[in-house]
Amino acid sequence: MIHTRRTVLRGVLATAASGLLAACGATGTGRTAGSKARNGGTLMVGQYQEVTQFDPNRQYSWETWRIDRNIYETLVDEDLSSANGVPKIIPKLATSWKISDDATTYTFTLRRGVKFTDGTPFDAEAVRFNVRRFTDKDFEYYDKTSAATMSLVYSDLKSFEVVDDHTVRYTFNHPFLDFLRQIPNSGNAASGFFSPAALKKYGQDGLADHPVGTGPFTFEERVRGDHTTLVRNTEYWGTRPHLDKVVFKPIADDQGRVAALRSGAVDLISRVPADSVASLEKDGYDVPENKHVPQIIYYKFNLANKALQDKRVRQAIIRAVDREQLAKKIYKGYAEAATSIINQGNEAYDASAVDYAHDPAAAEKLLSEAGLASGDLKFTILTDTTGQPTAEFIQQQLKAVGIDASVESFEWITYGTRAANLKPTDGLVLGEWGYIAANWVRIAHNQYVAAQDGARHSHTSEATAEAIDTAAHNADASRSTELWQAAARTWAEDATIFPLLSFNRYYAVAPAVGGFVWPRQNHYDLSRVWVAG
Length: 533
Description:
Helix content is 26%, strand content 20%. The chain is an alpha+beta fold. The strands form five sheets. Strands 8-9-10-1-11-18 form a six-stranded mixed beta sheet, with helices on one face. It starts with 41 loop residues before the first strand and ends with a strand.
């Protein structure tokens, strides 16, 4: 063993074994395609959103990463073979690693003999090329867009070093206990590696249309709005995936996804509608339950809206909404109310944390104290089409306390553009994200609050800034949970984020599918999945 005593950080197992854990044949659903895994066949996946782009440094959204992670691989991965417990960190493109006692320096030994699917080698120089793309402004292939996205994880990176052909070292300015956990986690800031030769050939904007990685599947084609096809990488360095092909189809309409599943057009769907859970289960489809996933639905406040710059108004909005009722009425109990930005699958989850409890009378009082009579406060709620029922529920709850909110709903790609170009009359903006790693608190705050703080208006209290920095720069793993919980509680007092709920049913799986597991994660492992012949 060459790992230091910090090999186990916050319950993360860092094994020094040089090989990956072999893919197992056990099913994760319990009602699948026989008891034995089968090689071959095509899996059809119905996704609830159109994906963004297949560039690991520019992509965003979980539906995109559920595809991308099969093309691009990371230095370490998570064992997603079980639905129970925090997934263990396991080797991937790195076979082992050392962590300094102060958790600022991470040294990785790279797996030998790995090639990108264009035949070029994965080695330390390939890693350096990838890292320089988003950190080195003097690099010929530096990309501002990638730098902005990857800063969510790498903003504190002090230096990157190639030690030798198969050893690399990352050094951060401050302790970064959650770095290992952040590497395989993505929705944004994916740490998957692309072929430098591919980027040189196709350019910064062309990589997404010609993705080249080291993963178990290779990109075949994307027809925007219709499907993306991956095929098995026949030269894959690791364990052979069971499937020969996976086709991902965006189906934004809830009942359209269910109909596609029932007709056999797809074998697996995400974001299963609550109204369909019971009937699907009755008819033999598996709709696995998981109450500990690191996913959370929330709204950010548009702090450029003058009315929402008043803390009392933001508090009133949160108090006006009955999140328990939202989970029960709109999602039929297949969701859990969230009263903290630390989601239920997070390592620092605190079930006792409550920001502002539902209290319409208190909401009306706060609005009155802010000088707002009934009907004075008007703003727009922005949502994608899948989140429209949630937005309309909130609209009605706000109306009950005298707030006039309108709802604007868009398909996902258009929504992303609209949400990035807010108007002063916009108020609440839908988000779906979350991580296992406790530093999710800092990522969320930086993304949704600090990014809106300006010279004239800062909405981050000194106490919140200090609490987040203290947790983020802590080097003692035994104190990490308490510090992040304290940071989240302090941030909640600012009322600058509005947590709503987390789903406990998310996927529906056809009986012909075997090996599917919904782990404590926002994505899943396709290498273990098979389909009946």
